[in-house]
Amino acid sequence: MNDTHPFRSRIGAARHTSRRSNQLLRLIRAAQPITRTEIAERLSIDKSTVTENVKPLIADGVLTEETQTAVGPGRRSRVVSFAENGSYFIGVNLGVRRTQIGTSGLRGGLTEYDDLPTPRSPTAALKKVRQRIEAIVEHMSGRRLMMIGVSVPGMTDIDRRRLIFAPNLGWQEVDIASELALASGTPVIVENDATAAAMYEARLKIRESDDGLLSNFILIRSGTGIGVGLVIDSEVFRGGGSARGVAGEFGHMTIVAGGKQCVCGNRGCWEMYASAASAASLYMGDRPPKSGETVPRFVEIVARANAGELRSRRTLEKIGDHLGIGIANVIMGVGIPRVVISGRLVYAWHLIEAPMRAAIERSIIGATHGWSVEAGEPAGSAIGGAVEAAIEEYLNRI
Ligand SMILES: [Zn+2]
User: What's the CATH fold of domain 208-379?
Assistant: First the structure.
């Protein structure tokens, strides 16, 4: 490994990447291999503009263009993909219960290396993560680590280097980027986990869709808490001014005045009523378990409901109702009618969907506008999002 990271010189430099070339690179990554004609059609731009953007990146060895023989008589076409140039990315999802660490190249191929319990203290947790990263770098010798993306269940600072506050982890003011800095100088980016998950879901949906963009949507991640990622005008939105890094903290909007005590210090927060973790508390009657009594995990509540147990069915219906109330508030506040739900709560989708829809329909937005709520990934968006955050940042800088 070189003393100076090859990418370091570009950090801090003015970002010349235009929005168009960001979108173009995202589309290539989601839909590769892809022809220049298809890129032009899906982004509604001229083929010459595609060529203008793609050519220098082919010359730089970031992209590659190969001849592909398509099915049919003598059909050959030139397709663009990211080059297999030995570069790779590490993603770390610092979850409340568990931490996942994985790698990916620009051509895809997510490899999960580790899934370990998250130590309670930030120092112990980051020391462990750092050791794992160093082991991966050693294992991948000969390949070049371009960026490390760390997703966290809380707010980040403006530069996305520090975690400001993650109530469910109990962590405050942790300089994650410095703690994980390698001698090679590989940049570390710290991203809110719901924002990271939104980037990940956006790529999956771009791959499935016919156009090249996923302009506006709200990603709601419900697991231990609730996080919200916002994609507005095809870019993630993190907030503005001194509150940049705060946007999407809807998990802590109050929906019940004087309601249940939340770990953030306030009462009646949305995540106390509509997260997967809140289902266990509701199932137990919102009282501490008696001695010898075990609190069921979320997947167990879902299994019991599937087996016909009334108490778990009622619990999940109530969660769905509160989820819908919050979703209506978020749609009204942000003005975006397309919602994707991800995280553990998705395991109960068939049970929560009807009461959730009924709650949205009761709201003014439900009565006046079209809206959609769909289920995303129950699990993959955690580590997928962390890696995505690293790659997205890299693409923004080239
Ligand atoms: Zn709260």
Answer: Nucleotidyltransferase; domain 5 (3.30.420)
Return the H-helix or E-strand segment holding 151: strand 144-152
In the reported structure, the alpha carbon of residue 257 is separated from the centroid of ligand 1 by a whole-number distance in angstroms of 12
| CA torsion, ordered 305, 99, 102, 80, to nearest 10 deg | 60
Q: How remote is the CA of residue 251 from the centroid of ligand 1, in Å?
A: 7
Distance 262 CA to ligand 1 centre (A): 5
What is the whole-number distance in angstroms between the Cα of residue 69 and the centre of ligand 1?
Answer: 55
Rounded to the nearest angstrom, the distance between the alpha carbon of 271 and the centre of ligand 1 is 7
Side-chain-side CA neighbours of residue 115 (13 Å): 6
**What does the pLDDT look like over 284-319, one tens digit per residue?**
998 888 888 899 999 999 999 999 999 999 999 999
**What SS3 state is found at 4?**
coil
Residue 22 CA, ligand 1 centroid: distance in Å: 35
CATH class entry, domain 8-82:
mainly alpha
| pLDDT per residue as tens digits for the range 76-124 | 788 999 998 899 999 999 999 999 999 999 988 888 889 999 999 999 9
pTM for this model (two decimals) = 0.89
